[in-house]
Amino acid sequence: MGKMKRRFLFFTFLVLVITYGYSLEPLKEAYPFQPVSFTQVKIEDTGRSNNFAVAAGVKLKAGPYIQCLGQNEMTVRWITNEPCFSWVEYGSDPDVLGQKAESVKDGLVQANNTVHAVTIKGLTPGQIYYYRVCSKPIESFKPYQVIYGNTYTSEVYSFETFNSSKKKVSFLVFNDIHDRPESFSHLLPYQSSEKKDFVLMNGDIFGHLDNEDQIVKNLLVPFAGVSSNSPMVFSRGNHETRGVFARHLDQYFNRGQHGFYYSFRAGPVYCIVLDSGEDKPDDNNEYFGLVKFDPYRVAQREWLKQEIKKKEFKKAKYKVVFSHIPPFYSGDWHGTMHCREVWADVFNEAKIDLLISGHTHVAGIHPKVEGLHNYPIVIGGGPKDGQRTMIEVKADEQSFHLKLIDDSGKIKEELTL
Question: Is residue 13 left, alpha or beta, with left meaning phi > 0 and alpha meaning psi from -120 to 50?
Answer without folding.
Answer: alpha
